[in-house]
Design goal:
Elements lengths: L1 H6 L13 H12 L11 E5 L2 H15 L12 E8 L5 H18 L3 E5 L2 H6 L1 H9 L5 E10 L20
Antiparallel strand pairs: 1-2, 2-4, 3-4
Helix pairs in contact: 2-4
């Protein structure tokens, strides 16, 4: 397990092949196993695999980011939006742990992942609110997006910056 933590890197180039149901479920289970404040477990994961829906969400995310015609989801065949109740004091913390656990679970079984920002901004737009309504999650906010797929890249050696730990002796 520690090797997964030490070696996991983000993936930004994916094969077009969709994840198997079993692998996707393992990654989702990893995310759902994340700790949450007071063990409320009130985050939601919306799994999007429909190409048209992914394209629409990608365009919405790109408009917030750079206003250009790019794909901030890097062609990933699975896009998971992590949402948390607006009223929860721990919504961002709990949702962030879900994404982190999903990424560790994905790497452990050979699935690529990357955390994509701007989910909060996406869900605050009129179009984002329509998505929330479609999913019956109007009282939720976006925390982040975890894209998933089989890597179509070689990982580079992960480096850790020095001088980030301060010991109070």
């Amino acid at each position: 397990m520690i090797n997964t933590i030490l070696k996991r890197c983000s993936c930004r180039k994916f094969k077009k092949e969709q994840l198997s149901k079993e692998e996707l479920q393992l990654v989702l289970d990893a995310g759902l196993s994340a700790p949450s404040g007071m063990n409320l477990q009130d985050t939601k994961i919306v799994v999007v695999q429909d190409k048209n829906d992914i394209s629409a969400l990608s365009k919405l995310n790109a408009q917030i980011w750079v206003k250009e015609d790019i794909d901030p989801f890097y062609g990933a065949p699975t896009v998971c939006l992590i949402l948390a109740p607006r009223a929860s004091r721990n919504n961002v913390k709990d949702g962030s742990l879900v994404i982190g656990y999903m990424q560790m679970g994905a790497y452990a079984i050979g699935v690529g992942s990357c955390w994509i920002n701007r989910c909060d901004s996406m869900m605050e737009t009129e179009e984002g609110k329509k998505w929330l309504k479609k999913w019956n999650l109007e009282e939720y906010v976006g925390v982040g997006i975890c894209i998933l797929g089989y890597p179509d890249q070689e990982y580079t050696k992960k480096t850790i910056k020095e001088d980030r730990v301060i010991y109070n002796d």
